[in-house]
Amino acid sequence: MHEEQLPARTVHCPYCDTRFSMVVDPSQGSHESWEDCPQCCAPIHFKVEVSPLSGDIESLVVGADDDVI
């Protein structure tokens, strides 16, 4: 899947509250990842839940690196 076809979500950094757009690849299925905030460079924990039936993104949870999400 090409990046321009992937769904984007607007999220807030849990550290500095900067809003930014994040591209999410639902073809990976449900997964967790870490990305650095584009403003403060703090590590952000993302948890993506994807429906096994439809392949649609059901939820995207954002937390600080040490949060249990």
TrEMBL record:
Pfam families: Zn_ribbon_21
Domain of life: Bacteria
InterPro entries for the chain: zinc_ribbon_bacterial
UniProt-recorded name of the protein: CPXCG motif-containing cysteine-rich protein
Species, as recorded: Halomonas huangheensis
Lineage: Bacteria, Pseudomonadati, Pseudomonadota, Gammaproteobacteria, Oceanospirillales
